[in-house]
Design goal:
6-stranded mixed beta sheet, alpha/beta, single chain
Length: 215
């Protein structure tokens, strides 16, 4: 029983990691914010695709809330139906009592398409049996054809710049570069997987830098 449990665990682990994106975050904290803890953060994803922008803001807010940090999606205050200048953004952030403005900018995204054309394989299977009436050995051969269908995989590479800004003076308390990679049979799934992992890594790095309290 232990043997089968080990095999099952390995299979589950392989499935989990097959669906995970690889994301790294490299950051720098301003020394002036050595003792600062941000407690109420507005999250803005500077991404043209509205579906992805909303998804990323929601995911980052969820990660903050899981750690007990108050956070709000910027699309609730800065709808994409108009252009917002720095003064307008600063006024709203201060009016709403936000002490942090997390700006996530998508710098570039590349998708490489890998096509496996598939294959057709034909094997000849030899077999034999004894005829019950004559006692003679009868030899047969059977042709078996197997088809491996073609597949398409999308390798997605995304790069981000992330900044935690103090709205009272527009100073950057923390900046980071994020790099993401995901291989998937679906571009949309790859995009979302990178965003999910990026959201987690941002909060993890902010905790490591002491800018938010760990739960």
């Amino acid at each position: 029983m232990k043997k089968y449990s080990t095999i099952l665990l390995l299979v589950i682990t392989a499935v989990i990691f097959a669906g995970c994106a690889n994301v790294t975050v490299t950051s720098f904290k301003d020394p002036a914010y050595q003792d600062k803890k941000f407690k109420n953060i507005c999250v803005f994803a500077d991404i043209d695709n509205l579906t992805i922008r909303k998804y990323l803001e929601n995911r980052v807010v969820e990660e903050f809330e899981d750690e007990g940090i108050a956070a709000t999606q910027a699309y609730l205050f800065f709808p994409p139906t108009r252009q917002w200048n720095d003064d307008e953004i600063e006024k709203i952030l201060n009016d709403k009592k936000f002490d942090g403005y997390l700006l996530i900018s998508l710098k570039n995204k590349d998708v490489a398409t890998v096509v496996n054309p598939g294959s057709i394989q034909t094997d000849v299977v030899h077999s034999s049996y004894t005829d019950k009436k004559t006692g003679k050995e009868i030899k047969e051969k059977t042709t078996v054809t197997s088809v491996n269908p073609s597949t398409t995989t999308f390798n997605m590479f995304s790069n981000f710049r992330i900044e935690l800004i103090d709205p009272t003076n527009r100073n950057k308390a923390w900046i980071a570069d994020g790099a993401g990679f995901m291989s998937s049979g679906n571009v949309f799934s790859a995009d979302r997987a990178i965003m999910r992992r990026l959201a987690y890594k941002i909060i993890e790095d902010l905790e490591d830098n002491g800018l938010i309290d760990e739960k």
